[in-house]
Amino acid sequence: MESNQTVSDPGRGARFTALYTREYSRVHAFAHRRTADGGEAEEVAAEVFRIAWEHELKGGEATPGWLFVTARNVLGNHYRATVRLSELRRRIGEELGRAPASPEESTVLDTLDRLPQQHREVLVLSYWDGLTAAETGALLGCGTSAVWVRLHRARKAFREYYTSSGESA
To answer: Could you report the per-residue pLDDT of 38-51, keeping only the tens digit for each?
Structure first.
């Protein structure tokens, strides 16, 4: 029965909170050194601890070593997604027979690439794919009002990334 613990285990939450408090900054730094982007590093760290919590709920133990192995795997998934997105952009450009992107278009596309996945997704669904808020909500599994909130946040993040890329040019 010991391996069949439930969420109501009174010590589990405290142990996990202690692990999170102790290890979050290390996992975040690990991800930041590999992504060179604070926002992406936060996403990776959040995903690592989400997976760790699920692992704990299933009776496993999330040790610091386990966290770093998980972080490496999450980063691998992130890299593969980034490569797929870049390849998709290249193929779409080829299929449409478009000339190489202008410097401004390249900056916009690079900004999209740098955005956290959830921001990029809602922007692409709304502007690239032309989905309505209701359609986007159905696809993302949330309500229309949540889509508008996500879209607002994504636009703000896009503006910040775009402005910062213009300053470094």
So the answer is: 888 999 999 999 99
